[in-house]
């Protein structure tokens, strides 16, 4: 949902930057890799050190590379499978870094195993959400549905984690992660149901033919 509503705004905002990067010879792939490296820095270095606010700021800043590289590819007229594959693969690394960083902090010096456990659950379920769509599309089905797509998951966890670093009670982050996990479960069910309907319709059509 957030992806669809925000896409137009951020495309307009970052198009000048994308044009400038192309002009100086930067490739979309380079932006993708640099953005992932920045997210990993925030997630696996700053979060485990307890810098929840600055970690969230760094992750959020570099996460916008996902928008910029896509704009650059479109401006170049590149719509091949390699860019999509690279972007999707590195997105999984970035997501893993964010939730792993939270897990490390709260199981160690953060001293809140409940939040650490919730972060692990969100990490696993988030991977399944993404995998369900990727697998469906590889089989020729559509599964871009659900209440907890990647943009929603990242926006919520980054905002609340950052505010926790500024003094928000940790229980709010715990509650957010629990809600995020539940939303991910719902999204997985929605995607499975959507693919099931398509598969059954396909089977019925084949039988009728």
Explain what this protein looks like in three dimensions.
The chain is built from 8 helices and no strands. The longest helix has 39 residues. Its cofactor is Mg(2+). It is found in: Cell membrane. Its main location: membrane. Pathway: Phospholipid metabolism; phosphatidylinositol phosphate biosynthesis; Lipid metabolism.
Count of alpha and pi helical runs = 8
Strand pairing plus helix content: what structural class?
Answer: mainly alpha
DSSP summary, beta strand count: 0
Strand content: under 5%
Distance between the termini: 37 Å
Estimated helix fraction = over 70%
Low-pLDDT runs of 5+ residues are none
Q: Main β-sheet: number of strands, strand sense, barrel status?
A: none
What is the mean pLDDT?
90
Described by the principal axes of the CA atoms, the overall outline is flat
Rg computed from alpha carbons, rounded to a whole number of angstroms: 19 Å
Strand and helix order: HHHHHHHH
Pathway: Phospholipid metabolism; phosphatidylinositol phosphate biosynthesis; Lipid metabolism
Binding site for Mg(2+) 1: 66, 69, 87
Pfam families: CDP-OH_P_transf (PF01066)
InterPro entries: CDP-OH_P_trans (IPR000462), CDP-OH_PTrfase_TM_dom (IPR043130), CDP_ALCOHOL_P_TRANSF_CS (IPR048254), PIP_synthase_PgsA1 (IPR044268)
Short description:
With 209 residues, this protein is mainly alpha-helical. The protein has helices at residues 2-23, 28-46, 52-63, 65-76, 81-107, 113-138, 150-165, 170-208. The chain is flat, with a radius of gyration of 19 Å.
């Amino acid at each position: 949902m957030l992806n669809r509503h925000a896409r137009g705004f951020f495309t307009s905002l970052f198009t000048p930057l994308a044009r400038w990067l192309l002009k100086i010879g930067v490739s979309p792939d380079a932006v993708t890799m640099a953005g992932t490296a920045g997210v990993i820095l925030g997630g696996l270095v700053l979060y485990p050190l307890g810098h929840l606010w600055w970690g969230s700021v760094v992750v959020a800043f570099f996460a916008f590379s996902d928008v910029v590289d896509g704009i650059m590819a479109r401006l170049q007229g590149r719509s091949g499978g390699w860019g999509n594959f690279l972007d999707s693969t590195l997105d999984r690394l970035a997501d893993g870094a964010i939730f792993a960083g939270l897990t490390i902090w709260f199981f160690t010096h953060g001293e809140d195993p409940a939040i650490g456990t919730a972060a692990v659950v969100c990490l696993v379920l988030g991977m399944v959400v993404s995998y369900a769509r990727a697998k469906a599309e590889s089989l020729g089905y559509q599964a871009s549905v659900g209440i907890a797509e990647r943009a929603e998951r990242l926006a919520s966890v980054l905002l609340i984690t950052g505010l926790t670093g500024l003094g928000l009670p940790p229980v709010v982050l715990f509650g957010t992660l629990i809600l995020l996990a539940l939303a991910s479960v719902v999204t997985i069910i929605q995607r499975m149901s959507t693919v099931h309907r398509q598969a059954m319709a396909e089977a019925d059509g084949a039988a009728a033919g």
